[in-house]
Amino acid sequence: MLADVVRFEPIADAVHLAIDMQSIFARGGIWETPWMERVLPTIVGITARYTARTVFTRFITPLHADDRPGRWQRYFGKWQCATRAVLPSSQLELVPALRQFVPPARVIDKPAYSAFTLVITGSETDVCVLATVLHAIDLGFRVVIVEDALCSSSDAGHDALMTLYRNRFAEQIELINSEELTSLWHSDS
């Protein structure tokens, strides 16, 4: 039996978007990401080949926790050491191996902004719901997920995301059930 051959379409007019490759996430940073060292050579290679089409984003923390809206205040209240009042400015810079590409590569700083509350329900926990939740967090929304109103075609994916929400986003996501929702959010009628 012959294996199916997967053919990929050529890529044209693309942008290489390298997300938050900053010292704060590198070895010794307060939010150290152990795999960064492993993937950095690959990112350097891609950037070297497509320098003019590369955009680096930098997650810029607030000067003080109270400078951010909504749930970001709570988050940076916990992570005071990541505020610019405490954190050395060098920690928010690109890692040294990537700085050499700017310019022509560009850097976009992305602070969070907003203070609305979103109550999230729906399908699929580990695809569309995940994308929406992460985007809402990035915008600084208060995110309330109704656990018993989410579903997925993958039980493993659903369970993994619920664990992720509890363990990695506890400062930014509130997990409640539908009964708690009715006691916390009164109807307009």
Structure in words:
With 189 residues, this protein is of the alpha/beta class. It folds into two domains: 94 residues, Rossmann fold; 68 residues, Rossmann fold. The strands form two sheets. A three-stranded parallel β-sheet has the order 1-2-3, with helices on one face. The protein has a three-stranded parallel β-sheet with strand order 4-5-6. The radius of gyration is 20 Å and the shape is globular. The N and C termini lie far apart (63 Å).
Tell me the layout of helices and strands.
Elements: E1 16-19, H1 36-49, E2 54-58, H2 71-78, H3 96-99, E3 106-109, E4 117-123, H4 128-138, E5 142-151, H5 155-168, E6 173-176, H6 178-184
Parallel strand pairs: 1-2, 2-3, 4-5, 5-6
Structural class: alpha/beta
Fraction of helical residues: 25-40%
Share in β-strands:
15-25%
| Element pattern in H and E | EHEHHEEHEHEH
Count of helix runs: 6
Question: Quick one: CATH class of the largest domain?
Answer: Alpha Beta
CATH names the topology of the largest domain as Rossmann fold
- CATH arch. level architecture of the largest domain: 3-Layer(aba) Sandwich
CATH superfamily of the largest domain: Isochorismatase-like
Main beta-sheet annotation: 3 strands, parallel
Adjacency order of strands in the biggest sheet: 1-2-3
Radius of gyration over C-alpha positions, nearest whole angstrom:
20 Å
Q: What is the molecular shape? A: globular
